[in-house]
Amino acid sequence: MQARGEWSSKIGFILAASGSAIGLGNIWRFPYIAGKNGGAAFVLIYLIIVVLIGLPYMLGELAIGRAAQRNPVGAIEAIRPRSPWKGVGYLGVLTGLGILSFYGVIAGWTVGYIFKMLSGNPGDFATFISDPVKVILLLAFFILITAGIVYGGVSGGIERWSKILMPLLFVLMLGLIIYANTLPGSGEGLKFYLMPDISKIDGSVLLAALGQAFFSLSLGMGLMITYGSYVTKSDDLFSSAGYIVLFDSLIALMAGLIIFPALFANHQSPEVGAKLVFVVLPEMFAHMSGGAVVGSLFFLLLSVAALTSTISLLEVPVAFVVDEKKISRKKVVWIVAFVAFLLGIPSALSQGANPFLTHFGLIPQRLSDPDFLSQMSFVFGDFSLALGALLLSIFIGWVWGADKAAAEIKQGSKTFGAFFKAWVFMMRYFIPVVIFIILLNLFGIFD
Q1: Alpha-carbon dihedral sign for residues 149, 278, 280, 381
Q2: Closest by CA position to 430, among listed 422, 419, 439, 420
Q3: Could you tell me which of 41, 104, 87 has the C-alpha nearest to residue 256?
Q4: What's the per-residue H, E or C state across 294-324?
Q5: CA angle, corner 282, sides to 146 and 178, nearest 5?
Q6: Inter-residue contact 357 to 346 (CB < 8 Å)
Q7: Which H helix or E strand runs over 407?
Q8: Measured distance CA(195)–CA(182) in Å, rounded
Q9: What string of DSSP letters covers 260-271?
């Protein structure tokens, strides 16, 4: 049997796990959700939820992985042998592959826009994403880069590249923050983003913050189980999870510090929604002095953020096959990557290139747009994540036992003991109820 991978350092694990959480959800989704939900009021609620719910749940997933030293399927089987709960692990692996298939398409668009911005003419977004040759080649390129990194293994591939990509991401964001906040009129954007108006906080803002906080941390598909399985028993899971949550939240906050000052400086509405990054910002950059360079740097930033996520999305099914089927990682990576690419082709062609896939519409329109990519996003990016998180929280809290999970977290940690009882209560009662509310909200129960 081949030896399993292991992180060579705590900082390597933290950067890799932070990279898995940091992605387009932080830099693309977070600002437009904040813009539509009251700006600073949303940000305040979001940060509270990340600490009170996201961090405790993440610890639960990490604890399963380290306790069993296996992928989501193998870990659940090791803790509760020959039980139907193993299906939750399979759901996680399938979810990771499903998300990678459509996420790779959007990640490919970000690469394409680096060059479109450099040309000085971003053109029409709808025309760009409806070009079948371009979008498939960009999908293939992004999956290929992702596979090349995962091929290198846990420490030689994922950890090594995370140590390069995460600092690069931070430096790019820092430069763009300085630039955006020197634009005339940017101060109004900062005020909207950083000065909460408590009167704007209502049920819809709370639910939006709950969903964003949870999904931005890559929770619910067993990704943190996989990454936790490469952690040694002497490592402090409690402090590591704290750093992961800190970095993830910091990058989301930094994205807002770029986008809102730039929007207000150019007299754009913060409530433009999902088209913000690919329609509004490119048009804005095109009319700014030095906008071609700034725009291309912004999309390079998005590409790096997307890559840190696609690495982890590919690692979940790869770790499953390596652990359970005992096949060499070097073979498995390319097979799984090719499957993800094939699964991604319908999403790539569903933005105007193919009428059937563009108007697929299997899921009702009140839940998702009719195109195949949006439908995949709802099924895997929303529903499967929430369902997986609900089932995993019940498994951790009641089947394995929150006290046993807490004992695993306490091992190697000098500070977790003080939170032991509070964490057990949260994991058993509070967190499953909150995730159930997120699941109901997906289907518009609270509209």
Answers
A1: negative
A2: 422
A3: 41
A4: HHHHHHHHHHHHHHHHHHHHHHHHHHHHHHH
A5: 85
A6: yes
A7: helix 402-410
A8: 19
A9: HHHHHHTT--TT
Residue 267 backbone class (left: φ over 0; alpha: ψ -120 to 50; beta: rest) = left
CB 208 within 8 A of CB 29: no
Q: Which of 369, 367, 326 lies closest to 347 in space, CA to CA?
A: 369
The residue type found at 345 is I
Q: Cα(59)–Cα(296) distance, rounded to whole angstroms?
A: 37
CA-CA-CA-CA torsion sign (158, 16, 442, 384): positive
Three-state DSSP class for 286?
Answer: helix
Q: Write the DSSP assignment of 219-285 as a string of letters.
A: -SSSHHHHHHTTS-TTS-HHHHHHHHHHHHHHHHHHHHHHHHHHHHHTT--TT-GGGGTTTHHHHHH
Supply the angle between the helices 132-151 and 86-118 in degrees, to the nearest 10. 120
Helices (H) and strands (E) in the chain, counts: 23, 0
Domains and CATH numbers, the chain: 10-442 (1.20.1740)
pLDDT in tens, the chain (447 residues): 455 678 988 999 999 989 888 888 888 889 988 998 989 999 999 999 999 999 999 999 999 999 999 999 999 999 999 999 999 999 999 999 999 999 999 999 999 999 999 998 888 999 999 999 999 999 999 999 999 999 998 888 899 999 999 999 999 999 999 999 999 999 999 999 999 999 989 888 888 888 888 778 888 999 999 999 999 999 999 999 999 999 999 999 999 999 999 889 888 888 876 678 888 888 888 877 888 999 999 999 999 999 999 999 999 999 999 999 989 999 999 999 999 999 999 999 999 999 999 999 999 988 889 999 999 999 998 899 989 999 999 999 999 999 999 999 999 999 999 999 999 999 999 999 999 998 998 888 887
Q: Fill in the amino acid letter for 102.
A: F
| Amino acid occupying residue 420 | F
Rounded distance between C-alpha atoms, residue 438 and residue 88, angstroms: 18
The dihedral over CA atoms of 161, 23, 115, 335, expressed in degrees to the nearest 10, equals: 60
Q: Which two tokens stand for residue 302?
A: 């998005």
